[in-house]
Amino acid sequence: MHPAAGGAEKHLHRIFSKIVEMGHEVVLFTTMFPGAKEREVVDGIQVVRKGGDLMFQLTVALNLKKLDREFNFDVVVEDLNKLPVFAHWFVRKPLLVQMHHLWRKSIFSEAFFPIAFGVWFFERVIPLFYRTQNFVVVSPSTKKELAEIGVDESRISVIYNGSEMPPVAAQLNEGSCGETAAQFRGDSCESNENVPVQDNALKNARAPYFIWLSRVHRYKGIWTALEAFEIFSQKHPEVLLKIVGGGPLLKKLPAWIKAHGLEGKVELTGFVPAARKYELLSSSLALLQTSYKEGWGLTVMEAAQLCKTTLASDVPGLRDSVRDGETGILFPSGDAAACASAMEKIYDDAEWRANLGRNAKRYALTFSWEKSARETLELLERTVEGSVRK
Asked: Does 128 lie in the same domain as 23?
């Protein structure tokens, strides 16, 4: 519910609301934001909010023991994003550390030096302060990065993000791959190659367009996307780019668009409701995912559920959610010319674009939030059992 919430928060909510459905009590301790209640129940999760983002480490230090006395936790999950909170210093309960990705050097592209250095430094010392704790990550890439900084691989589990078609998107998706939902059951999907493909991007939209969908931050690679589109647009002035999402850099984009002569070709929608988001995805040519760093890439799976391929930076996380040449195209991170070349290939070859979209949907449907939640619960139970044995 936080206005700055993104994929990490969506992941946490989907996993732990399902764990509540499985009969367990979940307490989320997080930060306040304007208009928020200090305590409320959201989809079965008891949410407790205190303090702001910048001092959350101190807030945890002052409150975690009190919360444990109130709720008597069996296990604590630290959702480590940017800075560790060292939860195991304040409550002597089994701890599982959940991570989406390491920032490493990419943090210097997002934050000012003092803050960026602090994040970089704390990531480097994670192995020193979490010597025995188990970790859970959302991709093999993040597991590899954790191992590279010194965390024992035997303590790192990979549990993928889920992927489910939201009800609001189901009607948009019907027939968009030339295949029905019944043909996509199970972990392997057999396609019916004789069914004609409907390209919604060209059929329903007044002009074909690529879509960029994210919070508008530096590390999300918004400048790469715009520069790539500028190159692509020189040859294809009939194609548009839609930037969907809000964020701190959004207000800077109109001036850049005007200076580069792209007015009328780049549309800034800002934040849109879920129904509109899926409508825009459904009618697009493809998703541009230009982040410098991702844990996985939930937007990749949202597009895939609508049979849309993704052109993505070849970075940890995205190289797991996008299979290069099979479900999408990977290009060198920050390389606008390479991104523009990928856009060219996708636009010029409608049949290949459709095949990538079908493959993307098959891949997306091998993941589910139910499976992810069940695997997370099993890992939590093993964490508790391991602590008892010690």
From this structure: yes
